[in-house]
Amino acid sequence: MRNATRANDHLLRCVWALELFPEMPTRLRSAPNRQSPSSSPGHDLVLSSLSPEILARWWSQFARDQLRAGLNFSRFDTAEWRSLFLLVSGGRFDGPGGRRTVGGPGLTDSTDESDKEVCAYLGGCHSLSASTDGASTESGEGVYNVVLYTHVPLLVATFRLGSEPATAENLFGNLQESLNGPLTANVATDSAEYMARGATTMSLFKSRRLCALVTDSPSNMVALRTQAVARGTFLFAFGCAAHAANLVAEDAARVPQIALALRAALLVPVFFTRSTRARALLKAVRAGLEVGGGRRVGSLRTYSRTLWAGEGATIASVGANLPALRHTLLENTHSAVPFKVPRPVADAIRSPTISESMDACTPFLALLARLMAVLEADAAPLSSYAGVFGCLRAALANHFVPLAVGSRQQLQASLGRRFTAFSDPLVVLAW
Questions:
Q1: How far apart, in Å, are the Cα atoms of 372 and each of 107, 205, 396?
Q2: What is d(CA 370, CA 117) in angstroms, rounded to the nearest whole number?
């Protein structure tokens, strides 16, 4: 009885319930407070059955709201949710259904209204950008996803460029065809005709909303960018900012001061990961130092060359563990049966020069990794591309002074070179 009373009070105040079922207050207030064999177990309210039209409206409303909120389509398809829906509806509605219902007819009915709202929003945008990224199907075939986004984080449309041979010509043809879809046809304006009449990029800049194409940087994607601009589909194109930042980290690994720290940082985790006894002793020593009042440090981190920006985390983890590593070597010498430590690993742990190099390069590499995360996944506006590279280059002039002047100059040169290769002057003007 108590639960039914709460449900009754909630429905009388619920804006959505009143919108979907305007007669509900009258029925609830006039319904007798008794148990009925026709009602679901535990329900005290006797309500007439819902018409097919009202049920269809409820299903459609749920599908539309799940789509807008980004909820997975099976979110409410559980015994607990179905029980709750039966409770609040007087046993007449058990929820929107599973993913086949919500993601099938329910989704089809809801996307038209959602698409109209998105198109209305796009009509007020001064500019858009299109991004491509690689993916794979369940069968292992390669495809390219295209995402359009505005100057605020908003997913506009996604479509695939197909899994046929990924030549620049094929990708460009599929890209043009996809841009003529319902969401993008009113913003994707081809400039080829105007360029042929002598119009310049700057003269078209203000009137075009789909200005730029950004991709990752395999050779076929670089060729796609070149072709898309040459044929007038986009006014300019540029490479992935996060990829450019990652290549700056790759260049940093060649700076002598950083290379010394990186070589040592690679040797130490590999040895302690492969040696069971060494790893166990290091763990015990680290725990003992923490109990004795030392600061807590994380474990050693291995390093993957597929993400060069991770070198900062690897170097930082070894640097933070140096006191424990040195105690581990000392404890090992007192062991009755010491394990063998390779000479390069021992030198990397004991060398003050290597320790100083780690301390000097860690702040810059850690900041570079964080900036790369900011630029990743196309979440940052175009201005961040120029701003991050420009500010980091300027900061190297008077900051990160533990790095030698020559090392900082090499890093400045890398930032300038990678920005020039991946970017376009219009990136700065776009925002």
A1: 36, 28, 17
A2: 35
User: 213: how many CB neighbours lie within 10 A of its CB?
Assistant: 23
pLDDT digit string, tens, across residues 272-308: 888 899 989 988 888 887 655 556 667 777 666 556 7
32-48 residue pLDDT tens: 554 444 444 444 445 67
204 in Cβ contact with 430 (< 8 Å): no
Q: How far is 44 from 37, CA to CA, in rounded Å? A: 10
Residue 194 exposed, middle or buried by CB count within 10 Å (0-12, 13-18, 19+): middle
pLDDT tens digits, one per residue of 203-243: 666 666 667 787 777 788 888 888 888 887 787 888 877 78
Percent of the chain with pLDDT over 70: 69
Using DSSP bridges, classify how beta strands 155-160 and 210-215 pair: parallel, antiparallel or unpaired. Answer: unpaired
Cα–Cα distance between 257 and 393 in angstroms, integer?
A: 18
| CA pair distance 54, 60, nearest whole angstrom | 10
User: What amino acid is encoded at 205 in this protein?
Assistant: F
- Residues with Cβ within 8 Å of 273's Cβ and at least 6 positions away in sequence, in order, are 279, 300, 302
Residue 136 scores a pLDDT above 70? no
Tokens of 172: 């460009």
Q: What digits encode the pLDDT tens for the residues 141-173?
A: 666 666 665 555 555 566 667 656 778 888 888
Closest CA relative to residue 245, chosen from 428, 423, 427, 415: 415
Answer yes or no: are the C-beta atoms of 368 and 392 closer than 8 Å.
yes
What pLDDT is stored for residue 146 in this prediction? 61
Question: Greatest CA separation found in the chain?
Answer: 88
- Phi/psi for 392 (5° steps) reads -65, -40
Task: List domains and CATH numbers for the chain.
Answer: 2-120 (no CATH), 124-239 (3.30.420), 245-430 (no CATH)
Does residue 135 have a pLDDT over 60? no
The span from the CA of 209 to the CA of 121, in Å, is 12
CB of 361 within 8 A of CB of 355?
no
Dist CA 406 CA 246 (whole Å): 21
CA atoms of 121 and 351, how far apart (whole Å): 60
- Of 354, 167, 177, residue with least CA distance to 257: 354
Question: What pLDDT score does 427 carry?
Answer: 64
Q: Using CA atoms, how far apart are residues 393 and 411, in angstroms rounded to an integer?
A: 8
